[in-house]
Amino acid sequence: MGKEKVHINIVVIGHVDSGKSTTTGHLIYKLGGIDKRVIERFEKEAAEMNKRSFKYAWVLDKLKAERERGITIDIALWKFETTKYYCTVIDAPGHRDFIKNMITGTSQADCAVLIIDSTTGGFEAGISKDGQTREHALLAFTLGVKQMICCCNKMDATTPKYSKGRYDEIVKEVSSYLKKVGYNPDKIPFVPISGFEGDNMIERSTNLDWYKGPTLLEALDQINEPKRPSDKPLRLPLQDVYKIGGIGTVPVGRVETGFLKPGMVVTFAPTGLTTEIGNGYAPVLDCHTSHIAVKFAELVTKIDRRSGKEIEKEPKFLKNGDAGIIKMVPTKPMVAETFSEYPPLGRFAVRDMRQTVAVGVIKAVEKKEPSGGPKPKKK
């Protein structure tokens, strides 16, 4: 087996309307993270609201209020995979009111992707003293994000289109500012792209054949692997808390130092509340009319899907397409029967974040003895 990919966090920063959400959405779409039918639906919704150019940004704008206002408010987390890394993208908003949110996202990032509007007027507004290109770059450096990729976006809308002269002008001016902030511009790739058309996002664009550097995807793979201080005590800043049906309250954050494992006793600050980290994967089980969170307590065996023969005892994991016998424990009491005796009560599907991750049948049930109520009379 190959080495597991390292997880990295990327923050997307830049001036309002520089194309952050569109670029990010298109990148994820190109890397197969989003179904084409979903993009088509986004395109239709965006067209209905006269915001056709927002179709890729729609990917990161989940809330209805955000869609109607055409701005990204909450930091949207989205994942995709490069040849080297598992990437989580933090889409930081560009409107000045939301600098607080941007700080929250930036402080968790390993690399900043600075999106620059290359159009006439767009670049000048962003790099001006009141513009957010400067402010975001300064914030990123101050908050400890030492690696950066600069994307000269909207190259399809420069005058003339895909202008090398405009690109060179932007690189010179942005490099000068980044050097003042504390970055080394020689170590920062400046990638000319079109977030909407997809130029230089994944594959090299013939429209930009004068550019010999990396594509955005290649630049992401060139990020230096971050060192995680796992030898220090656990510190995990909570970014958000979700309430997920059938599972309950789920805190979300990144382990900054130390490590987290099942069975550990942790303390939440500043309340001082102490609790134990639970063991096992706990998605939702759909069985007849029940929808209950279950814990995968034990992977008993891995079996051949066709013959049913045992391949491996106590496998460490089951991947997509594998079959196995698993011991599951519901978090609440539920009624279930074996498939052989009562087929309708013995089939199940397992869902995680609304995605079906497993289907199967019940082979055996450990039943609780009935208690309370009148006992049946013997005849």
TrEMBL record:
> Looking at the keywords, is Protein biosynthesis present?
yes
Q: What are the Tr-type G domain coordinates in residue numbering? A: 5-230
CDD domains per record: EF1_alpha, EF1_alpha_III
Coiled coil located at which positions? none
Entry's Pfam families?
Answer: GTP-eEF1A_C (PF22594), GTP_EFTU (PF00009)
Q: Which domain of life is it from?
A: Eukaryota
Keyword terms: Cytoplasm, Elongation factor, GTP-binding, Methylation, Nucleotide-binding, Protein biosynthesis
Kindly give the InterPro entries that the UniProt entry links to this protein. G_TR_CS, GTP-eEF1A_C, P-loop_NTPase, T_Tr_GTP-bd_dom, TRAFAC_GTPase_members, Transl_elong_EF1A/Init_IF2_C
Subcellular localization(s) per the UniProt record = Cytoplasm
Which GO-annotated molecular functions does the record name?
Answer: GTP binding; GTPase activity; translation elongation factor activity
What's the main place this protein lives?
cytoplasm
Q: What's in the GO CC field?
A: cytoplasm
Give the family per the record. Answer: Belongs to the TRAFAC class translation factor GTPase superfamily. Classic translation factor GTPase family. EF-Tu/EF-1A subfamily.
Known function: This protein promotes the GTP-dependent binding of aminoacyl-tRNA to the A-site of ribosomes during protein biosynthesis.
What is this protein's name?
A: Tr-type G domain-containing protein
Species of provenance? Trifolium subterraneum (Subterranean clover)
Q: What is the lineage of its organism?
A: Eukaryota, Viridiplantae, Streptophyta, Embryophyta, Tracheophyta
